[in-house]
Amino acid sequence: MDCFQYMKDIYFESYEQFTNEVDIARNNMLKADTNEICKIPICVDLNTAQELPDGRLDIQYEGTNFECFFHYKEVKVLYIFLNGAITGKGANVPMFSRWSYYKFMNGSLLNISDPMYRMNDELKLGWYYGTEELDLQQRTADFVVKIADLIGVKKSSIIFVGSSGGGYASIVCASRIAGAKSIAINPQIVLKEWDPYSTEFTKITGISLSHDDKWHRNNPIYFLQNCVDNRYLLFVNLRSKLDMHQVNNICHAMNKRVKYGLNIFGNVAIWLYDADLTPWLDYHDVQENYSLCFLFEFIMNSPWEKLEQLSSFFRLINEFYYDMRKIEQYWRKTPNISRLMQIQSINRKIAIFGLGEYAEKLNDELFCIEEQNYYHVQYVIDNDLQKQGSVYHGISVMHPSEIENWMDLYIIITSSRFYIQIC
């Protein structure tokens, strides 16, 4: 089976010609038009629509407004991309993570922003959950079937994709459609155990994630065990303790053991990979790159009983990916000279905010405060009153209340906590 349809038949004639054609082919495969995501959304009435236009769409369905990004391809496969938390640089609503994947995924792409963020603007992670009275995951699944029918895609050719909260949602939404598939990257499983946000979700919505939900929203292991016509691929970073705890929940419930690489249990596959980009990215956030998406497609399109014969191949892929991330980690350790010059030019004093293991890693790998002090750190700030006045690598720790004018400072956040816990 062809697992990579791009960059075929590029023949060497000369050095310049060959490298140029390879660059052009890769660029054509990957470079998405950012204008597509910035367009004014088109309102579509599914009751009268004969086709869907490409680009940003606003679609009312059963009382819910679905904000979408869509790109059509003639291949009769529909990829549904679901989104996780509103975090990171430039994150806002509507959110269309991985929207640019329309360039190379072998099928139409529908990216659906989580309606939960419109239902409650305090939420930073919504899981497409709904309310006590509304099963938003079922409504999302019904909406997807409506779209699939419109473009002529059968249910078994619908593939949900997402990571973290979007990975959880890809499992539960796919489970509501007989024969649909799910690719879940570092997904939450038992929601009440997702400590970074479960308590906050309950505080904002009033919904308990601990009780037995009648729609099985709090623990999708129910679907993994009972939806035998669906197919699930979980791609999980073994370095992430939180995510491996979720894998352990699955293993315990299904009485299975997992090993390094690809594990297949009937209609559930768990691919354990190894990637480390600390301290720049948390283990949970080191996820797939574009090239792995072709392997995801290959897995979804292959007979799974034959994939077990390729276990050594997937372990080897793991090693390539691990090495790639280690090289990236090494280069990130190199001081950013241009950034240092920019910081000096703004004429502000440099402060780090937040102490602990994450700050210590950053100091060891980047700041070197007691030695080169590459970033000329002059202030150390922490919310913990017990740390006030203590000495951190030769600098007295200050409490935020001691700062007279924040505009005098250039703040570098050195906490691994969610940014919403700092801002």
Q: pLDDT under 50 segments (min length 5)? A: 418-423
Task: State the separation between the terminal residues, measured CA to CA.
Answer: 50 Å
Quickly count the helices: 13
Rounded to the nearest angstrom, the radius of gyration is 23 Å
What order do the SSEs take from the amino end to the carboxyl end, as H and E? Answer: HHEEEEEHHEHEHHEHEEHHHHEHEEEE
Kindly report the average pLDDT value: 92
Form type: globular
CATH homology superfamily of the largest domain: Alpha/Beta hydrolase fold, catalytic domain
Overall number of strands = 15
Fraction of residues in H or I helices: 25-40%
Main CATH class of the largest domain: Alpha Beta
Specify the structural class: alpha/beta
Beta-strand fraction estimate = 15-25%
Which descriptors would you attach to this protein?
alpha/beta; Rossmann fold
Brief characterization of the structure:
The chain is an alpha/beta fold and 423 residues long.
Give an overview of the whole structure.
The protein has 423 residues and is of the alpha/beta class. It has two domains: 32-330, Rossmann fold (3-Layer(aba) Sandwich), CATH 3.40.50.1820; 337-421, Rossmann fold (3-Layer(aba) Sandwich), CATH 3.40.50. 33% of the residues lie in helices and 18% in strands. A hairpin with a 2-residue loop joins strand 9 (261-265) and strand 10 (268-273).
